[in-house]
Amino acid sequence: MACPEPNHPGIRVLHEKTFPTGKASFNFVEWKEPAELPDGEYPLILNIDRILYHYNGSSMTRRCKVPMEMAPSPFIELNPKDAEKLNLKEGEKVRVTNRRASVVVPVKVSNRIKEGEGHMVFHYPEAPGNILLNDQPQDPFCKIPQFRMCTVRIEKYD
Length: 158
Hints:
The protein is mainly β and 158 residues long. It is 8% helix and 22% strand. The chain has two helices and six strands; from the N terminus they run E-H-E-H-E-E-E-E. The chain has a six-stranded mixed beta barrel with strand order 1-5-2-4-3-6. It is extended and about 60 Å long.
């Protein structure tokens, strides 16, 4: 909540009546589906993200005790239903593959992840999730590539 002065109880909704610069400017764009969608060869959506415990390539945070205790190694998070379909158990190593590359990581089974999706982070040089990402096409409005999601298949790694 915002407080305009020290003893004010707070404002739940900022700019409820007006914006400081006048009217808000909203730009609406038509939704465009991603360049890659799941198919028979690559049936899962993979999201690449960050975790709280590491920063960028983790070269500094991997020298610190607490981040390494909390997130010592790379992993892919899968929904329990997807793990069951793929006959995977917590901690088993898998190869995550798509049209550009593949990465080997252990599985973390989690209800946090939606069925049909996987989640990896990019902080670990030994399993750089970013090499899987699609860098095209460029979004015509934002002028950025479609980073952070791609399609993959997952197979047990021996």
